[in-house]
Structures
1.
Amino acid sequence: MTYKIYAPNIHLFAFHLRNLSSSDSQADTDYDSKLLWHKYDQICAKFQIQQKLDLRDVAEGSRIALLKGATKDNILLPLEGKLSLNHGKRIKITGQACPLQIYDSYALGLNIRIPEVENNQKTEDVDLTVFKDFNPDQCFLPSNINSSLGQILLLTAWLPQKQQQDSHVWKEIADQCVQNFLGENDQDNCPPLYQEGQLFGSPIFEYGIPDQSQDYGKIFVWLFLGEDINGNYAARAEENFCWFYQYFIDLFFDRQKVIKAYQISREVYSDAYQGYQDIKQIINETIDHRLEACATTQSQDNQRSLSDDDLLEFKKKLRILPKLDLNYSDWLRQLESYSLTMKINAHNYSEKLQQIKAKLPKDEDLSFLSVFEHKISPTYQNQIQINLSYFAHSSALLDKAISSIRGIVEIEQAERDRALEKALRDKEEADRARDKQAEKQEKRLQLWITFVGTGLAVSGISSQTDAKQPLEAILIELDRKGSLDCPEAGFYPCLSYSVVFVVFHILIGVGVGAIAAFILDRIINRRSK
C-alpha cells in the first residue's frame, strides 16, 4: 500500500575533520579538508540550486558559523531549486544550508524540502515515493559524501489525519520512506530498525546499527502529527526541531565523534590483538627453542647451554621484538586516546541534552535521544576499557617475557665471553710456556756453541806453542830413559809425545770453554731477570 505525506524534508548532517592527525595523513595524502563544501556544490547542481556558500576563514578551535555576514540569530543560507519527479514534472523546493566549524571539525547542515505553503496556498499531499526523487544518483548517501566523521540523514514528513489515527501503519510508512529514499524495491533490503519511539509527541524511527558502517549510513525518519480536521498543520515536533536546530547539529556531531572513535578503536583493537599474537608466537617459539636446545646441548660445567645457531636466532628475535613491542605500545596509546575522545564527546552530548531539557516543560519525554547517552555510549566506553585492561595486562607480561629472553641471551653471551677469555688466557699461557722452552733451548744451544767454540779456539792456540820442554821434563821425570827426539831415540817416545801433546791441549780447551760457558750463562740469566 502506498501512503500520502505532506511537506517531505531531507536533512543531511555531515561532519568532517578539518585536519587529519599526522598518522592518518600518512595513510591518506589526498585528504580534502574542504570536502563538505564541494559536496554541497554537487548536490545543489542536481536540484538547480543557485545559492553558493560564501565562507570566511577562521582559526581552528572554536564553534562558529562560517557564512560571511552571519549573526547570532541568522546563520542559515536560504535555498531554492527544482525537484524533478519520475513522471517528468518539476516542482519547487526550498531549503537551507548551515556551514559551521565545531572546534576541530567542519559541519554541514543541509535541508531540502517541498514547502508547506507556496503562493500563500498550502501545497498538496504527495506520494511518499517522492523520497526517491530526493536522492538522485544516491547523492545523499555516505558512499558519495564520504566525510571523515560520518553523517546522519533525517527524513521528515507530515502525516495526514487519516494516518495519524492508525499508529500501526507508522512503521510501515517509515519503512517505505527509507526504501524509496535508498531506491530499494525489496523490503528485505531495508536497513534494520534499531529503535523507535516518540520525540516531541511525534513518532521517530532510527535505522541502522550505530557502530556499523553501511552504505546507507544512519537514517532517522520522523513523522509529524498535527493536522487538524480543517487540514491545517501545526506540530510542536516541527516547531521544536526548528527551535533546537543548532542543538541537534551539536548532538549529532558529538554522537558521530563517539561512534567514529569507537569504530576506529575496533580497528586498532584488531591490529593490537594481531600484534600481541605475533609477539606471543615469537616468545613461545623462543621458549620452545630454548627447551629443545637445553635438552640436546650440555656445556662442560654441566650447565645447559645454547649452540651458536641458537644464540644467533635468539639475538635475531630480540631485534624484532622491540619493534613489535613499540607498535603494540602505540596501539595502546591510540586506544587510550580514542577512549578519552569518547568520554569528552559523550559528556558534551549529555550537556547539550540537558540544555534542551532545561528549555522544555518538565514532563517532556526525550528518552529517544537519551538512549545514546544511557545505553549506546556507555556500552562503547565499557568495551574500550575492557580492551585497554586486557592489553595493558598483556603488555606487562610481554615486557617480562622480552626481559627474560634478553636475560637469557645476556647470560649466555657472558658465559661465552668468559669461556673465550679463559681460552685466550690458556692460549697465552701455553704460548709463554712454549716461548720459555724455546728460550731455554736457545740458551742451551748458545752455551754449547760457546763451550765448543771456545774450547776449539783455545786448543788451537795452545797447540801452536812450544810445549816440548815442559812435556819432556814431565816425561823424563816419569821415564828417565824416554826422549822426545825422534827418530834417533826410537818410535815409542815420539808417539807418546804426540798423544800427550794432543790430550794436553784438548784439556786446556775444555777447561777454558767451560769457564766461558759458565760466564755466558751468568750474563744471560742476569739479563733475563
2.
Amino acid sequence: MSPLHNELDQQFANELRNKVGHSHPVEHVLTTNDRVIARVTDGIYRQPGSAVRELIANAYDADATWVSVKTDAPRFSRITVEDNGTGMTPESVIHLLHNIGGSAKRTDEGQELGITSEDDSNTSPGGRKLIGKLGIGIFSVSQLTHSFQIITKTANDRYRTVVLVNLRQFADGPIDTEGSNFKAGSYQAWREPTDDIDAHGTTIVLTSIRPQTRDSLRSEQLWGTFTNALSEVGEAKARSSIPKYHIGHLDAHGLHIEDPKNQQRSLPWDDRDDSQEAFAKMVQSVWSSAQGRTAVKLSDMFDTYLQMLWNLALALPLPYVEKNILDERVADDWAYFYKLANDSKGAAQELKSGDPSITVRQLAGLAPTEASPTDFKVIIDGVQISRPIKFRNLPTTQHVLKKPIVFVGSLLQEFKGYDRDVTAGPLEFEGYLVWTPKVAPTDHQGVLVRIHGASGTLFDSTFFNYQVAELTRLRQITCEIFVKQGLEAALNIDRESFNTAHPHTVVLTRWLHNALRQLATTQKRQAQQLRLEARGSAERDAEDRISRIVTSANSLRTDGEGVVPEIRFARSHQEPATKSVGISQTFDLDRIVNEIPDRPPAEVNSNSIRKLEAITKVLSVYGVLEQLTPKEQDNLLGSILGIMEAENLG
C-alpha cells in the first residue's frame, strides 16, 4: 500500500525517486491542507468581540452606512449582525464558501464579482479603502458558534440568498479522515423570492453560541467570584468583585442576580437616553471616575460585555465621541502644540496661531485627511458607539503642567531603490502623541495603530518595545498613528499584532521612538520653565506679603505718620561699616554673619537676607535698634539670621 493516500502526491513522489541531479527537478506549487484553515479559524482571536469586529469590518468593506448588532444580552443565546451594504451575489457567496482564506478583495476577481471598485481593487465599489484582506473574517465566528446563517441580497435582485453553515473546529476532537482532508464544515444554500426589490445588505445570524463564548460575555468569572464571596468570605470581598457598571447576570434558572447594591443591572446611561447620548455617558463615566483617583481601568469600571463595546468603538472606522484631535483649533489655548521632526536628531517645533479658525492639521502642514468615517455608524443593542477618546477637560493632578502637550507629525517612506517584493511598497502615515499627567482609562496608555481607520491592536503600552527608562512618562502618553498606505503586509493573521521584522514596522517603530524622545525633551523643558515661573511668582507674592506686614507695623506704631526706613545689607568690601544716611541704613553682612553661633554657612540664602531686611525695618520702626550699640545690633541681627539659616548650618 502506498504511504501517500493522495494518488497525485504519490505520483510526484515516484517521479522524485527517479530525478537524480538538479538539472531537471520536480516542480510544482505548494499546497495547503484543509487542517490549516481549520486550525486558523479555531482560535486566531483573543476575545469574542474580535470576531464581531471582523463581521462589522466586512460590512464596512461592503459600503454599509449602518450596522446593527443584537447580542441578546445578558443571555447571549443568539447574536445577529445586520448591515445595509451592497450584499452578495450568488457568485460572490459561492466564492466565499469555497475559498476560505482566499479573499477576492484586492484582486481582479474581486472586481469581476463586484466586491471591489472597477477602478481600484484596493477600494470598495463606493470608494472606501478596504479593511479586510485574508478572506477569513466571516469564518472567525467559529470561535463564537457551531453554526450560522447568511441572508444576503443585492439591489434590483428579486431573490435573496440564504446559506446555513455548520462549522467544525480543529479543537472539537479527532475524526476518522480515512485518507481524506479535514473538513472544516459544510453548508446548504438556496434562493428565496422577496417583495422588496430595492433592498440590499447582509444579515449574519449566529445560533448555537459556544458555552465558553457565553461564559465570557456574561462575565461568569466575575459573578462566580461574587456569589462565592457572599457565602465564603463575606460582603466586603463580594462588593469588590463586581465592576461599577454591568448588564446584570442570570442564574441557572434564568433569573436576575442582584449586585452588591441590590441592582439587577447598572449602566452608565438610562433608558431615556438616545443611542448616541448613551455611549457619550459611558465615556464620560470613565473621565468622571478618574477625577481624584490614582488610576482607572476599564475592568474596574465595566463588565466584559461593556468592555467589548468600548474596544469595538476603539477598533472600528468611526467618528470620535467629540472630535479628532487633528481637527481641533489651536487658538483655543487648551493645550501646547508641537510639530515633530523626522530627523533623528531633530527637535519638536512649537505651533502657534492667532487665527481662531485654523486647525492643528492645517497649522502642522499635514495633508487633508481621507474621507471622514461619519457616514458609517454601528449600533450595538441600541447603543451607537464612537471612538471613546477625549482630549479636552482631562483629569487634573498636582503636576505643574495643567494643560496637555500635543505632538503631531507625518512620514512618507517610499523605499526608493529597494525591490517592492522586499518593502511591500511605500509607507505613509500621520499621527499624534498627547502627554497629560493622567491618562484615563489606563488602558489608553500606549500607541494605537489604525490602517485605513481600523485597528485590531488596541493600545500597545510598550510603544513597540521602547527601551528607554521612561516608565512614568510613558504612562502619561496616548498616541494614535493613522496609516494611509502600507503596513497591511506587516499585520499578523489575527490582525491584533504586527510582524516586528517587516520593513514597514521597522520604519514606523523608528519614527515612534524618535517622537517619544522629542516629547520627553520638550515636556521636561516645558515643566522646568513653568516651575521657574511658578517659583518667581511665589517669590513675588512672598515679597508683597512681607511688604504689607512691614507697612502694617509702621501704621500701628506711628499712626501712619512715620516713614519705613530703607534697610540693606552689604559685604565688607562694598560697605565697610554700619552707617545711616537719612532714613536709609546699611549693615555689614559679613560682620552679622560672624555673629551667628556655631559655624556660619558658606553662603547666605538670598531669601533669608530679604526676610532679615524686613525684620530689621520692623525693629527700626519700633525703635529697638536705636537702643542698641552697633555691636549689639550685629549680635541681634546675627542671631535672627542664624535661626532662619539653621537648616543650612554645617
3.
Amino acid sequence: MSHDHESAALWEPSEQVVANARVTRYLHWLWDRGVLAESYQELWKWSVTEVDAFWSSIWDHFQVVGHRGDGPVRTGGPMPVDGLRWFPEARLNYAANALRRAATDPDATAVIFRSEAGGHRVLSNRELALHVAEIRAGLAELGVGKGDRVVAYVPNTPEALICFLATASLGAIWSSCSPDFGSSSVIDRFAQIEPKVLIAVDGYAYNDKRFDRTDEVREIEAALPTLAATVLIPYLDPASAPDGLRVGMSYADLPRPGHELAFEDVPFDHPLWVVYSSGTTGLPKPIVHGHGGVVLEHLKALSFHHDLGPGDVFFWYTTTGWMMWNYLIGGLMVGATVVLYDGVPGDLWKMAEENGITYLGVGAPYLISSRKLRRRPGEKYDLSRLRGIGSTGSPLPPEGFEWVYDAVGKDLLLGSFSGGTDLCTGFLGPSPLLPLHAGVIQCRGLGAKVESFGDDGKPVTDEVGELVITEPMPSMPVAFWNDPDGTRYRESYFDMYPGVWRHGDWIKIRPDGGCVIYGRSDSTLNRGGVRMGTADFYRVTEAFDEVADSLVIDTGRLGDEGRLILYVQLAEGAELTDDLVAALKRELRGALSPRHVPDEIHAVPGIPRTLSGKKLEIPVRKILLGTPIEQAANPDSMANPEVLTHFTPEK
C-alpha cells in the first residue's frame, strides 16, 4: 500500500478559514505591489523564482525591527558555502524582534510555563523584557560581549528563554543542551565553541524521578577552561549552592535590576546560536545560524504555514536540546503566547485544555502512541480553542492523520512538518489554503525550492527521489563552527550535487504539490532493485499491538544483496511467537512486497535512539557489517546506549 493512497481530503479550508488566514493577507498585500499570485502554488512558484523579491517582501511585510539598508538582497553564491551573503548592509537583532511587543502590548501574556512537578508561571511581555534586561546587564558585567559564547545546560523553563534573549541582545552566541544529556555528550558539543559563561541547573525531574546533575555540572565546567563564570540555577533544590565549582556563582546573583533593555545591532549573518547535528558518530557538527536568517524564516513559517499570530497560544513538546525549542520560542516574534513545558510527555491533551492552547506541536510518535492507546481526547477534553496540531521528527503514517480527525477534532489543521536542525525550520509543511490528504504533507514551504532528484540528478515528479533544495534560503547555516574553509559544511550537504543542498531524505512530490517523505535516503532498504524508505516498513510493523517499537536494517552493499533484519521491541506481556513472526512477514509481504519480507526477526529489549528520539539505523547497520560498537555510535548522544549490545553480527 503506498503512503499517498488517494482518498477524499481529511480536511479542506472553509471560505472563512481562507479569508482569515495570514497568508491570504500577505497575498492581498502583494497584489497591491503588483505580484498577482492567485493560489498557493502560484505564490510558491513566485517565491522560489523571484528569490530576492520574496525575502525582501518578508522583511517589509513583517516590518522587521532593524535597518534593511539600500544594498542588494544577496551577493556572492550560489550557496552560503560558496560565499553567498544575504542582506549584506542590514543591521538587526533577533531579541529586538522577539521582544517588540513589550512596548506595544505590555500586559499580554508572553510565556506560560508548566512542569510535571506542578510548576506554573505566567510572564507578560513587560515582565519578560524586564527579566531579559536584568540578566543582560549581569552577563555584560561578567564580560560577555558581541561574539562571545554563552552555553546552557538547562530544561525548558523561563530561565532558559530569558538567558537566551539576554545573550542574543548582546550579540553574544547561545548554545543549549538538555540536562538529560550525559556530561561527555555536553562536553563534545560545548568544548568545540569555547564558551565564556555556562548556565546550568542542579538537576531536573522526569517521570516522577529526581535527577541530581551537580556532578555533571562540575565535569562540564572542568572541561571548559575558557569559562569566566558558571551560573548555577537551583532548579531541583532551592538550597543548592555553587559549591565545588571553579568559577561558580548563583543565578540569584546574576540579575542587575534597574537596567534598561538595549540591543546590539549586528549584521544579518552574525551568529545567533549554535545547534548540533545528531552526533550519532564522531563529534556533533556545530551548526551556526544567523540573526537575520532565523528572524525571516520563523516569521514566514509560523505566520504563513502554521497561521499563528497575536491571540494564539503556541506549544511544542521539546527540550532545549532539540531545534524545535528554537522554533517554538520564535512564536514570540509573531505575537503568540509560547508555552514552555518541562517533564514527561504524559497527557498533553489535558494540558492543551488547561492552558487554552490553540496550536499543539508534538513528535509524530506521540500521535501514533495516542492512537495505539485508543485515546479520544476530543471527547474527553474541551479542545475548542485548538486550531492546529503540528507533527514532526519522523514521517506520520496515514493512520496517524486519520486518527487525529477521528479522535481529536474535525475543524483543525494537522500540520505535518518536515525539515531539520540544519535550517532550523521545516521546508515542507502545512498551509491553511490547501486540502489535506492522509499521509501527505500539504506543500513545500514558501521560499523553499525543494525538488526530488532522480538517479540522473534531474528533477522528477510523482516519483521517489533525493530531497534537494536548489535555491538558497536565509536560514541555511552561515557556517559550521571551526570550519574556516567550509570543508565540513560542503561535505555535509553539497558533495553530491555542486551548488545544490542534498538533505538525505527520500521524497515524492505529487503533481498537486503535496509531498510524501519515505525516510532517510542513507538508511534505505534496497531489495532486488526495489528502493524503499524505512518509514514504510515501520508503518506496517508498528501497527501490531504486540510491537512497541521496531528497527529494520538492510545489510546489503553494492554487489551483495545482504540480509534484511527486523528488530522488534515487544509491548509489555507480548512474546515473539512463531505466530507473530508469521503474521509480521505476511503483513510486510502484502503491504510492501515479497522482497521486503525480513530474513530474520529478533526481539530486543529496546530500539536504540538518539537523545532527540531518532532511530539509529545507520550506526546499527555499521555494527552488523562489522564496525565495533564504540566506533559506530557515540553512546553519549544516545537515549539508551545499553541496548546496542543486542545488535551484533551474530544476531
4.
Amino acid sequence: MLWLLLAALDAAELGEGSTDLTGPMTPSAQVVTLTNLDDPVRVDDVEVRGRRGAARLAPETELNGAEIDALGAYDIGEVLDRIGETLGVGDEPMVIINGKRVANSSVFSGFPPDALVRAEVLPPEAGGLYGGKPGQRVVNLVLQRRFSSHDARMIGSRPTQGGTSSLSADLRRSAIAGDKTHQSGVRVSRDSPLRADERERGHENEGPGAGAITLRPRSDAVSANVNLTHSLGQWAGVFSLSGQARESRPVSRLGANIVEGRRQYENLGVSAGLSGTALGWSVQGNMNGQASRSRDEGFADIRNENQSLGFNGTAGRTLMEWPSGAVVANLGGNFLGTRSVLDRNQARTTTTFHTGEVRGSLSVPLSKAGEEQGKWSGLGDVLATLGGSVRQSSAGGGDEVNAAFAWTPNKGVRLNGVWSASSDSVPDLQRFEPVYFDTPMVVFDFRTGEAVEIAPIRGGNPDLRPPHTESLSLTASIGPFSRWSLAGNLGYLRTESTDGIGALPDLTEDVEAAFPDRFQRDATGRLISIDFRPMNLGSTQTEGLTSSLNFNLPRPAGVAANEATVVRVALNYNLRLGSTLSLASGLPELDRLKGDGGGVSRQDARAMLDARRGRWGVNASARWEEGYRTRRFSGQDGSGDLITAPYTAVDLKLSFQMTSTSVRAANADEEGGARRRSAGLQLSLEVSNLFDARPEARLGDGAPAPGYGRDWQDPIGRSVRLSLQRRF
C-alpha cells in the first residue's frame, strides 16, 4: 500500500518551482537588498551575489554537506538531535527553513540528511529576531533546490548478554522541487521481552511465576506519515498527516501477585498551515488536530479517548530602520482545546479543558559596529530584546516577562544575557492524564536497607498549583578561529522557583516523611508501589556553569569541501555550583550537592567525535558523571547512606558505503556541491555502552549497596545494533 501511495505522489510530481520555500529575509542596515538571492546584482559597477537561504544574522556555526553527512544520521530530525548534543543548542531550538520561519517546520524532519545544502546555528540573539523566546537558539536549514530519493532501512539490535532483541524496518519517499516538497514513510518495529529469569537478580527471581516478570516488556509498533508543501500564489501551504499504533505486554509483581498487563495506544494527527506576507508582516499559521485512544488492562481497567484541536500563529516585521539596524517586532499566539473521556472500572468521566497564549517581543539594535582598515571600531553590535506573554488555561492564568541583551564587541567574540520571570499555569496534561501503573522498576528502600521492585504510579495530578520561576543566564562565546574552526563558550545559569512542578525526589526517609501518602507498603513493611505523579515542590534553586569547545580538522588547500576528510570534535563540561530544595512550605532547605533530599552529581562531561573519509564513517561519544552521596537522614553522613560511584559510558558507530557511485546535484554551482549519497547499500554497526558499564554504589559503611548488582539498574548493558540502508 505504501508504494501505491508513493506512486500516486510521484504522479502529481513536483514541477518546476517558481520560487523557493521562503523569500529573502529583511536585510539589516547597510546590506544591499537582492530581489532574488540566487542572481547577481550590479550596484555601481560592483557585482553583489546573495546567498540562497541566508538568515537575518550570520551563523555562529555552519555545517556543510560533508559535515552533515559525517553526523551519521538517517533523517534531518537526527541531524538536529546531533547538533543539539555537539553544539549545545538546547532541547527545543527554533527551526527555520531557507532563512525564514514556516508554518510547520517539523514536516521536514523526515527528509534524508543529503536533502540539506547546509545547516546553520545562529547566534543566541536570533531567537528574539525570529519571534522565539529571548535566548532560544535558532537553527537554519537550507534545502536543495531539487532532490528525489526512495530509501529503505532495516535494523536489528540485541544486548551482548542476550535475552531480548529488537527489529525494525523503514520505507521512505522524499522529493523537493523548488517550493514544492513531499515526504512519506512507514515504520514497523518489534521488541521481544526481557524476562527476570534471563538475568541474575537474586531473591527477586524467587517465588511462583517470578521468572516471568518482564524487565522490558514485549512491544509492537507501526507508524506512517505524509507531509506536503506547495505554493499557493504568494503564499506557501503545508499539510501533514500521521498515525501510529503500539501495544506492549508487561508482566509485573503487584503486591504478592504476578500480573500480566496489556497496553494499547492509537493516535491520528493532521495539520495544515500557511505562510506568506500580508500588509508588510511575515505571517505563519498552522491548525492541527489529534485523536487518540488508549486501553490499559491487567493492572487496572482503564480506557481513555482524547480529541484536541489547536491553532498557532506568528507574525513579524521590521518597524523601522535605524543607523544601527532594523527594529523588529514579533507577535504570536496559540490555542488548544481538548476533550477527554475516561472509563475506569465501569465509571465514565468526561473532561474538557483549554489553553491559550498571546506573546510579543521587540528587538532593538542599540549599536552597529564600524570597520576601519579591516578592523572593527566603536562599541560593536548591541541588540536588546524585550518580550512578554499572557497565558490562560482551565487551571488558571499565567504571565511572563523576559529580556535579552547581546553584545558583539569584536568579530568572533559574543556576550549574551537572558532574564525571565514567569507565573505559569499548570499544563492540562499534568493535571488530567489518566493514572496508570508503569513498567516495574528497582529502587533502594532507605527504611529497610533493601532493594525492591515496585510498581510506579504515573499520570496526572489535579491538585497541582501554578509555579513561579525566575531565571538568569549569561554566556560568553568566542570563535570560530583559525583553520581549525576553533570555538568555545562559557555560560552561567541560575534558576529559582516556588511551587515548581517536578517528580518525587530520591526515596530517602526525609522524602517519605514529607509525603507518606505517596509510598505504599504491605503488612510486612515491604515497599510495593510509589506514586511518581507530578507534584509541587516548596522551592528549588539551581546554579551552575556550562562550557564547550568545538573544532574541526583543517581541510587541505585545493580540496573541495565534499571531498575532504571530515573530523569534528565537541567537548562539553558542566559544573553545578548549587542545588537546594525545600520539599514543602515550612520544611527546612535541603542541600542536594551534599546528599540531602536525594543527591545529585556535581559535575559531568561529554566528548563527541564525528568523522568521515570516503566511504567510511565513524561516530563516537563518551559521557562521564561524577559520583555522589544520597543521605539517609538530612544534615549528616551516615553508614546507611547510598554512595553512587562515578559512571562512564562509551558509544561507537561505524558505517560503510558499499558502492562509491556519486549522484551529482542538479545545479553545478549548488552550495552543497556533489551529492553525498549513492544508490548502493550502506552498512552501519553501532555498539552502545561499548565497555558494558553498569551503575554501581555502596553504602556509607563500605558494604555493597543492594539493588546495584550487574543486572539491577541496567539489565540491558552493552547492545549491538546492525543497520542496512539502501537508496533505490
